[in-house]
Amino acid sequence: MKNLLDIEPVDAREELEKLNKRFPVVLTRNVEDAKRWLREKARGSERFGMVVSSNAYRLKPHAIDVRVQTDPVKWFLEGKEDVRSSYFLEDVATEFQVQGLELDWACVTWDADFRYTNVGGMVIRLLGPNGNVVKRGAQTVLDKCHRVLPRASKGMVVVTVSTAG
């Protein structure tokens, strides 16, 4: 993941080829495909869930709203029958809620606050009432946020969706 975030494509590809043998990592732009992948991969009591950046405000069109307070205790500990648990893939956890904790299978969802462009990767911060004011910078804070999001022991799906231009 480090090489991916550091925009080192050759090293990232090599690392992913080695990693995929024991830790599958897939990439998609479709949230529903990601949820389906998690449900298919998890066996028995293996825990899965969606984690996102606390700055991922533009995921609301995908029914992901980081402003909704998730109770991390319920999210991590409740069973498959509890709608507040990570298993339902309705409530998401942020980097603050997953700090030091791990899922078996994770869906890491990136918003427009982290994107790749034709000139390389860029961490941005969406500001303003419409979320359409882009502030470049704060690189180290947001970059660190995306480095702590991947918390999975068996595998992960990365979703890169963007509703911002």
Number-wise, the strands total: 8
Helix content: 25-40%
Query: What is the distance, rounded to the nearest whole angstrom, between the alpha carbons of the first and last residues?
Result: 25 Å
Strand order of the largest sheet: 1-8-4-2-3
Short structural summary:
This protein is of the alpha/beta class and 165 residues long.
Q: Key terms for this structure?
A:
165 residues, alpha/beta, five-stranded parallel sheet, three-stranded antiparallel sheet, 5 helices
Give a written overview of the molecule:
It is a single chain. The protein has 165 residues and is an alpha/beta fold. The protein is built from five helices and eight strands, in the order ααβαβαβββββαβ. It has helices at residues 2-5, 9-19, 31-41, 72-77, 139-148, and strands at 25-28, 48-52, 93-94, 103-110, 114-117, 120-127, 133-136, 152-160. The strands form two sheets. A five-stranded parallel sheet has the order 1-8-4-2-3. Strand 6 and strand 7 form a beta hairpin. Mean pLDDT is 76; it is low at 132-148.
